[in-house]
Amino acid sequence: MVTVDLIAPLTRFLEANAAIRRDKLVAKRRKGLETAVSAAFQKQGRLFLRSLGQLKGKFQESVNPADWIPYWNAAARDSKLDFNDPLQVAILDMLILGGGDLIAGLGIAADEQEELGISWNLENPRAVEYARQHAAEQVTKINDTTRSYLNSMISQAVDEGWSYDRLSDAIGARFTEFAAGGDNPRSRRVAVYELGDAYEEGNRIAAKELQTAGLEMEKKALTAGDDRVRPSHVDNAAAGWIDIDEPFPSGDMRFPADPGCRCATLYRRKQLTPEEKRQRELRREREEIDRLFRQELEQTDTSTTGFILPPPGRAPRGQGQEYADRRAIAARINTQIKFRAQLQSKLDRYRGQKNRRYEMDIATTRVQELTKAIDNALQIADGPGDWDFKRELVNGIFEYLSATTRRQ
Fold first, then answer.
1. What would the pLDDT profile of 235-292 be if each residue is shown by its tens digit?
2. Domain-embedded: residue 1
3. Threshold 0.85, pTM exceeds
4. pLDDT band (50, 70, 90) for residue 2
5. What are the percentages of helix, strand and coil residues in the chain, rounded to 5?
6. Residue-range definition of the domain harbouring residue 345
7. Is residue 15 located within the same domain as residue 144?
8. How many domains does the chain contain in total?
9. Is residue 29 part of a domain?
């Protein structure tokens, strides 16, 4: 019987499906954004040519950037919202779709999202802020590229002695080309890249929120798998699953890296080895013990032992044992202080009762012995020496006191 290993091809299929899902969503929404960007290019061209007409009389002499740049800046300013608003809406939409697909693909149901403190919708603050800021940045880049085109055209016109009408026609044709020229106009390229990039960013933001909520996440690069893939991106895919905060071999944190990149980024919960799982469970146990201990301290007067306790929060690397020892010493002393207070309260209740004289004598002796033991323990804690050694001494004091009391 021949056994065929289907795991690898099945895994590849499921991974590729993530990129297919992205591309389908981009194709579905591309036309709307492309139309809006096309209209913005057309408006921008009209505004610029209308202002540039003021240089018509000067054009036969000499025109330099200082002459036409103010007209360009005005056209860019007056058409800014025509680019920005549809970009921001489309980016936010794809961010939410991308993050939602990631969360659903990881099998995180609505109740678990609520437990993790994640709200992934159009009001997610990180997604909203990213859409606002990124749309503005992309409009600036679009305008910088357009200005570069214009600078080349106007410089060529001046050098070659073009008439104003010839230059005006050429600029008008270039903006028409931006809007709807050829099979793949600039408006379409902008729409396709921004939608796909936003989907991938939504994946990344959601993965980071899951990590912040306590899930360990990792990522992997997925290429288009053909001979057009850049060698550096082949290396990215070969790196396999890496930590979410680690850059890929190419230096990129996620994909697509640029408008020409067809790669995608995959995310999943980190796959732990048995030893890593054991260490994580131990860490959780320590954190739970620490939480319960601090809860106990909130109900205890720590004015006597406050100097023993380490600063709040997680211990710095290499100081975990010291923090544990200090907390244990404080807890042991506080327990004895509470016990002494209980004995003292009993003494106060028995005071003046002749039939309680024997019990009062025992309690008085016990309070005196406890006070001496507590004072000794506090002196040890405040003295020199390693905390683990101090912990042994403090435990020894109270264990000896307990043993001698039982013999009485």
1. 999 999 999 999 999 999 999 999 999 999 999 998 878 887 788 777 777 777 667 6
2. no
3. no
4. very low
5. 70, 5, 25
6. 275-407
7. yes
8. 3
9. yes
